[in-house]
Specification:
about 500 residues, 23 strands, globular, seven-stranded mixed beta sheet
Length: about 500
């Protein structure tokens, strides 16, 4: 038996799984929740990295108590992308981490983009636009708004890098996660001198070495190993961003399979053998953690919106499904633009929620529930349409995240996306992907397949009982409603900006 620990540190919780690499079975799981820092100004989304450490310690100890810990051979870490963890020369956290969903850096994005020569030049230099969610503008924000803290800065890490540093004591960054920083040329897989200089040329020494996902981050610190009751040398793999690890954990390592994550945010991503650059900058051309590329669209408002609405109505999850199902597709004309946190795709950092079509018939909880699920899924489909225009051809979409557990939402996804969708038997896709990467990092070759391909084939299974096929009549209706949603989104952008003034 060879066991591997996979850890996924997200916005709302940290999850851990223990994978038996021989059988492909997940033997234990645990989750620990935490909150963002309350009371910050609008657009500011931050967390204390020490909360991630406490949650990591909790879930690791809980899962290890359920297995033969003497069989643990390696650890892999998945983490929320784009966050900025500033450390001083002693590796101490200088201030709370600014997260992927922080939209307070709009001015910094404009400054960096101007210094690079404009949006088209930024795309040529790094393969992506400079967006508020990315790491680079967060660093410039610190320099402009908290200069005393910036003067202490000596190490720039992303959330999963910080956890790797806690586990190993080393500083490193893997290509996939690094490609979401807006400081890296995703085609060359190297830091961009021009992008770094647009923030601060002297910052280059603060960035860790970039490495392939096949290279480990190091070995588990002896102090932690003893405290967790682990023996021998425990390899910590490079890890990666949550989307990169979820791609592995859903079997999205070859063309044709597309993953949609219905979590706090929403992402849709696919494997590509060559770089994918969107001239409009809406699709992020990230590197994958499997040696290829991972064109990805991210929306900031998915279960963060559905859970808020569910709480407002006093529904449990089953009641929410029942309410949505009781209303016909299209919610009798009620449309929600779900931009509660602003939006990244399309890029509307000043966005807010907006309802169109309120009438005496639609002004009730079931219609609002249906419009909410449709609105967040239309938002994701906006990105899927763009992915298709860049050559991605999905044969099926594998769902992960909390929203994938809803049969009503799964059918709605199939009808809006226009292809079959299926959930996974193991729904902690990012944690499973991290465990699989850890196992692959110390595995030998296996015939014609790479170690990772063999492990994924063994451990990653769609839940066929969850598969949903598009209903053709509903699919045609949703095509029309998608166009209406997109036009409404475009027409509301000036109003969003006015509402923020």
């Amino acid at each position: 038996m060879a066991l591997f620990l996979g850890i996924d540190s997200g916005t709302q919780s940290t999850k851990a799984v223990v994978l038996d690499a021989v059988s492909g079975r997940v033997l234990a799981e645990a989750r620990e929740t935490y909150e963002m820092i309350p009371g910050l100004p609008p657009g500011h989304m931050e967390q204390h990295p020490e909360d991630w450490i406490k949650a990591l310690e909790s879930v690791v100890k809980r899962v290890l108590s359920k297995v033969d810990r003497s069989q643990i051979r390696g650890i892999g870490v998945s983490g929320q992308q784009h966050g900025f963890v500033p450390l001083d020369g002693e590796g101490r956290v200088i201030r709370p981490a600014k997260l992927w969903c922080d939209t307070s850096t709009v001015r910094e994005c404009a400054i960096i983009t101007k210094r690079l020569g404009g949006p088209a030049a930024a795309l040529r230099e790094t393969g992506s636009l400079v967006l508020p969610g990315f790491t680079a503008p967060k660093i410039l924000w610190l320099k402009r708004n908290e200069p005393a803290a910036y003067r202490r800065l000596r190490h720039v890490l992303l959330p999963h890098d910080y956890l790797n540093h806690y586990l190993t004591g080393s500083y490193s960054m893997e290509y996939g996660d690094g490609s979401g920083s807006a400081l890296m040329d995703v085609r060359k897989r190297s830091w961009s001198v021009k992008a770094i200089a647009a923030v601060d040329a002297g910052m280059r020494d603060f960035l860790p070495d970039l490495k392939s996902s096949t290279e480990s981050a190091g070995t588990l610190r002896p102090l932690l190993a003893r405290g967790w009751g682990l023996t021998g040398e425990i390899t910590v793999s490079s890890g990666g961003g949550d989307n990169m690890m979820a791609a592995i954990g859903t079997g999205n390592i070859k063309p044709g399979v597309v993953t949609a994550s219905l979590g706090t945010s929403g992402t849709i991503f696919a494997f590509s053998k060559k770089p994918v650059t969107d001239p409009r900058g809406e699709i992020a051309g990230f590197c994958s953690s499997t040696g290829g590329w991972l064109p990805l669209v991210c929306t900031m408002n998915v279960t963060s919106v559905t859970e808020r609405m569910r709480s407002l109505f006093g529904y449990d999850h089953r009641a929410m499904d029942h309410a949505v199902k009781s209303v016909p597709a299209g919610a009798d004309g009620l449309t929600l633009l779900p931009y509660f946190l602003g939006e990244r795709t399309p890029n509307i950092p000043d966005g807010s929620g907006a309802l169109l079509g309120l009438t005496p018939q639609t002004a009730d909880a079931p219609h609002l529930a249906r419009a909410t699920l449709e609105g967040v899924t239309f938002g994701l489909n906006y990105g899927l349409v763009r992915l298709r225009s860049l050559g991605i051809r999905p044969k099926e979409i594998r769902l992960t995240g909390g929203g994938a557990k809803s049969p009503v939402w799964r059918q709605l996804c199939a009808d809006i996306f226009g292809v079959p969708v299926v959930a996974m038997k193991e729904d902690e896709g990012a944690a499973l992907g991290a465990a699989l990467q850890a196992a692959a990092s110390i595995a030998g070759t296996s015939g014609k397949k790479t170690p990772l391909e063999s492990l994924v084939h063994r451990a990653v299974k769609p839940d066929e009982s969850s598969r949903c096929i598009p209903d053709e009549d509903t699919r045609r209706l949703y095509r029309k409603l998608q166009a209406r949603f997109d036009n409404l989104s475009l027409s509301m952008r000036e109003a969003f900006a006015l509402a923020r003034d």
